[in-house]
Specification:
Length: 138
Amino acid sequence: MSRSLNKVMLIGNLGKDPELKYTPSGVAVATFSMATSEQWKDQEGNAQERTEWHNIVAWRKLAEIVGEYMKKGKKVYIEGKLQTRNYEKDGVKRYITEIVADQIIMLDGAGQRTASNSVAEESAPSSSDAPKDDDLPF
């Protein structure tokens, strides 16, 4: 039996306020960018920094929590999976790789808040319940 793993864990800062939208069938979806940075010294001893930007998407109750509580600049922990999808814009086929969040922990503020799709739903949706590409609001 062959097994595989698709898991992403990030700690970083939101690059913009999340956009909360709803699919035509009423499913909540939130999208936002997140920055992670690494720092090092080059061979001459000069400090260097590189920032990587990640596209994040959250669905259902997790999306509603994201839309309500998360703001640009806030530090968060995100756990999820990588997903690449394609869409067409102006007659050109485009691809986007994003992280589909399963769990988010807000690290800034008066206290840490944890949100997860598995806690928010009584029963996990099957893959046939997942929104179709034409339901995506972006």
